[in-house]
Write a structure and sequence with these properties.
about 350 residues, five-stranded mixed beta sheet, 11 strands, disordered N terminus
């Protein structure tokens, strides 16, 4: 190569490098995509998957689909919702924790995961270390509902019924170590009653058996049972949060029903594998928060009994840390453990 050609080659390379800042904060990830796929296109250049760790039909699934519908046009890519249920939502969490950290595989997690950290003696992942928070989608109260065949029409009547026949009545949950399981355990401890816990993989199969009378009651989130309550197929006795649900304003809280200080609800949020580039997490947070705080999304949340949040990544991280510590104490006091 002549000296003139070498100078021309170096000049061309310098021009190409000088153009990189124009790509903005996504230059690094765009180059990474070009290296791995050969496409040279910036993220996202293919569909994104939201992993729901429960079967279709539950609150997690409903929230994930509501978010995906708006996120697809915002990012210019298809956003797929895929269910990976099992082991109290830990199967889906483990899948995402071990997924490639490229912004294409995300977890729609929930309060269940902060509880599972204490309930399960061994987990194949660390929820706080192996996943990075993006934002909290919504808070949803849990509600104590009974099949109409159960004669109790209030919490007080239910307690009398349970004490008269200990171990006879059943309650369902979304699986061992989930919020519903812990709420049921706390309820029994607070009332001095004894019930049989029936774990399910999610709200869909749980609701089917509750409606069919195979189980007597549940402490599920408001969303999957709200239509059945309105149709008179299930009877609500109390919500488990300190404040009443806007979707069920006439239903008292457990605190109001005599279980002072009872306050457990369920939050749902989005997380990515821990090593996901910060610029991708920031972009996802920006787009999701914009959607979650929009009037249209808020209206949809009100319809299903949810309260939209849309917080920062740091706020969600603090939320996870605080609740993990809070539930660790509750789990220890309730003596709930799973091998």
């Amino acid at each position: 190569m002549t000296q003139l050609r070498r100078r021309m080659a170096f000049a061309s390379a310098a021009i190409a490098l000088s153009a990189l800042p124009a790509l903005g904060p996504f230059a690094g990830s765009a180059l990474a995509q070009a290296t791995s796929t050969g496409s040279g296109q910036a993220w996202p250049n293919r569909p994104i998957t939201l992993i729901v760790p429960f079967p279709a039909g539950g609150t997690t699934d409903v929230l994930a689909r509501a978010l995906a519908d708006k996120l697809s046009p915002a990012l210019g890519q298809t956003v797929i919702v895929e269910s990976k249920p099992g082991a109290g939502a830990t199967v889906g969490a483990d899948f995402v924790a071990k997924a490639r950290p490229d912004g294409y595989t995300l977890l729609v997690g929930a309060v269940h995961h902060t509880i599972a950290s204490s309930v399960y003696k061994k987990l194949p992942y660390d929820f706080q270390k192996d996943l990075t928070p993006i934002t909290t989608i919504a808070l949803v109260p849990n509600v104590l509902v009974v099949n109409p065949s159960t004669p109790a029409k209030s919490v007080a009547e239910l307690v009398v019924l349970l004490k008269a026949k200990p171990g006879l009545y059943t309650y369902g949950s979304n699986g061992n170590g989930t919020a519903q399981h812990l709420i049921g355990t706390q309820f029994q401890n607070a009332t001095g009653t004894e019930m049989v816990h029936i774990p399910y993989k999610g709200s869909g199969p749980l609701a089917t058996d509750l409606l069919g009378g195979q189980i007597a009651m549940s402490f599920d989130t408001v969303t999957p049972v709200l239509p059945h309550i309105k149709a008179g197929k299930l009877r609500p006795l109390a919500v488990t949060t300190s404040k009443r649900s806007s979707a069920l304003p006439d239903v008292p809280t457990l605190d109001e029903a005599g279980l002072k200080g009872f306050d457990i609800g369920t939050w749902f949020g989005v997380l990515a594998p821990a090593a996901t580039p910060k610029e991708l997490v920031a972009r996802l947070n920006t787009e999701m928060v914009k959607i979650i705080r929009s009037p249209e999304f808020r209206k949809r949340m009100e319809e299903i009994g949810a309260e939209p949040v849309g917080n920062s990544t740091d706020q969600m991280a603090r939320q996870i840390k605080d609740e993990t510590e809070k539930f660790a104490k509750l789990v220890k006091d309730a003596k709930v453990t799973i091998d």
